[in-house]
Structures are given as structure tokens and as C-alpha cells.
Amino acid sequence: MSAQTTPRLIRGRILTFLENPSQESAASAYHFYEDGALLIANGKIADVGDFSDVQARASVNLGAEVAVVDHRPHLIMPGFIDTHLHFPQTQAIASYGAQLLEWLNTYVFVEEQKFESAAHADFIAGRFLDELIRNGTTTAVAYCSVHKQSAQSMFAAARQRNMLMVGGKVMMDRNAPEALRDTPQSGYDDSKALIEAWHKPDQRNYYAISPRFAITSTPEQLEMSKALVQEFPDCYVQTHLSENRDEIAFATSLYPAAKYYIDIYAHYELLTPKTILGHCIHMCDREVSLMAERGAVAAFCPTSNLFLGSGLFDHDRFAKLGARISVATDVGGGSSFSMLETMSEAYKIMALQGQKLSPLQSYYMLTLGNARALGLQDKIGSLHVGADADIVVLDARAKPAMDLRMDVAATLEDELFILQTMGDDRCVSEVYIAGKAMKSAL
Ligand code: GUN
Ligand code: FE
To answer: Per the record, what is one GO cellular component (predicted)?
Structure first.
């Protein structure tokens, strides 16, 4: 990975997780350095700890004063990770008045047709990634449109920014406008060509095989998806599951052999530890247990689930049954690019079901939790020596009302909760990607 070579110290109040604070005793689940520093060299974290220790070690090891970027009193955390969103829906966000299937037909399938134009795809890809950065998101798992070009645009834009991105062109061969349909063969061929060209973990690009959902794929296309998964087991798989009751009824009517929606994906062997299933709202215990057994991940998309009136994701039931969970925006069904706003809505969805989401657990989910969901915890999601230097710097006093509230905040947990409940992109004071300051350069 190309990167900044001059070592630098990034100073501030550092928070990084070692474990899920809901499982460990919270105090041993994270490191917090009130006056901390990260030594950044060659795009990676070379040291982390108390500022005075890291500075002393740096001057001994490097034999010279190392430049310091001082972010105090702001919080420094691993860059946020968004595990499910749609890059061609960047201009479909905030489309009024419909639930899932009507919303797809009325807005999304109209918008996605514009990505037949390479110029449009290139333009939106750049704006999309810049918006992620503006919100402190340094890695995302993105659906592209059906057009092969759209994935090329997304990966090229990611490579320009040196951003670790996962994505793939959607495969959809029915129940969509003609202009958005591929065929089982062309979907396979285009996906395979994209994997060969762009699935380059050493360059921070990862491919996700992306049958959109059972409604828009024929059995022949899901068969081809299965072939791709078997041929390219290193790639991710992404699709949607049990978001909306009409969707479930339609999907299961198209696959009459399936008793439950998830049986469709199980039949085509699409449930793997590299599979991310968007939404997973209306599911019985047997389905959740099957996910746990296969190691597939449920992407909890709070703003989308509220915005589209889809329902309430049952976080604690998934946790109890041992299923893996990530969090995501699902833009443009999701109504914000901000992972802070996303966790604010996650908290409320859980509150509606009598569940609690602690502030520490929220930030674990945004960082190490989502990195683990992707199996990328060695590279991203925590600030450990050898990790990629993807970092977000947060200012909990960025808005006047937050400033006032912060005046009476007593603890780190208070500050985190204020950031999540009142914050947005204005609170993201800087973002580093592979050691390079990106937000201030936008
Ligand atoms: N299900 C199938 N496609 C989509 C999509 O684009 N957004 C959401 N929220 N759900 C879907
Ligand atoms: Fe989605």
C-alpha cells in the first residue's frame, strides 16, 4: 500500500477496543490513553501508548525529533466501518413515502439506471467516498449497480484514496427494469472479470459477490453465485434478507421449496463466514440459529429500518443465539452516512424492545466489532502496532448544544454517548487513511 513515509506522532485522547465490552468486564475490553499518541510510519501504526512513552521511544528508535500533530482534547479512534450501503444510491437518499418494494421500483431502480454512464459512475464514486471520509468512515462494504463499470469506478476511486473498500456489482436478472437486468451468464462473467481485476487485498480492494436478493435473482443466477463463491472463496458475499414482510412473502413465493427465506440462500450455499446479510429483521429462531451455525453476519441497518418502516432488528436475540452482528448505514435506504447517527438510531431501536446498548459497546461495534465481522481485525478496527493507520478524530463539542451538554459530562462514556446522540459529520475533526490526513484535504 502506498503511504506517507515520514513518521509522525498523532497526539490526543486515544480509545481503542480489545474485546466486546458487553462480554468482557468493560474495563479490560479497551485501552484509553488520556494523553496518548500513535506513531504513524509507512501508513501503519508503529507504536501506541501514553504520549511521553511513545515520544521517548520514537526519538531513541528514529534518532530524531518526530513531528507531532496535536489533536487534544479530541478523541482519537479507529476509523469507522460501514458494512452495508449502496454507492449508486448516493442521490436516492431521502426519497419520500414508500416501503421497500415500492421504494426500489419508484426511486432506486430509476436512479441506478444512470450508472450505465461511466462518467456518472466516476463522478458519484468520488463524491460517495468523500462523503464516507467526511463522516469518519474509512472502510465500507458497498453494493455497486448492475453495471460492471460502476464497480470499476468505485474501486478506482478507492485506490486513489488508498481506502480499504469491499464491494461488487449487483447481480439481478428479474423483477427489475430491462436496463438493470443482467443474465446468469453475464452476471457471472462480469463478476469474475471484476474479481480478477480488482480483488487485491494488498491494494486494499476486496470483492463481494453480490446477488442483490432472492426477488431479483432467478434460481439460475443464484446457482451462478454459488459457483462464484466456490471458485473465489476469498471474496465476500453480500445480499439482503428478511427486511420487509412483503419482500419475504414475494421471495418465498418465487422459491416454493424454501420454508423460510433464509433457506433460499442456504440452498445455494451462500451462507458463509464471509457473507453479510442486510437487515435480518423478521426471522424465527431457527433461521437465526442457522446463521449462527454458518457464521454469516447480520448487518443491522437502523436508520434504513426506520426510514423504510421495515421493522426492529432484534439485536439481543441474535447475540443470545450466537449469530454474528455488524452495523451499517444502508444508504440510500439509510437516511445518513454518519455512523454516529446510525448508532443513535440503533440505541433507540433497542430501547423500543427493552434492550440496552452501552456507549462503549456502540463504539466497539463501529470499529473492532465491524472489523471482526469482516475478518479484517488484524488490519483495521483497532489501533494496535502493525494495524493500518485508518483513524478518526472526534470533537464532542462541535455544536453549541453539544458544547453545553459536555460542560456537565463526567465520564468518557458520557462523552461517547453525547457524540453518538447529538453528533454528525461536524464532529469529525480529522480522518486519516493509511496515515494520510484526508478530511482536512477535502
Ligand atoms: N433489498 C434489495 N435491494 C435493496 C436496496 O437497494 N436497499 C434496501 N434497503 N433493501 C434492498
Ligand atoms: Fe441494502
So the answer is: cytosol
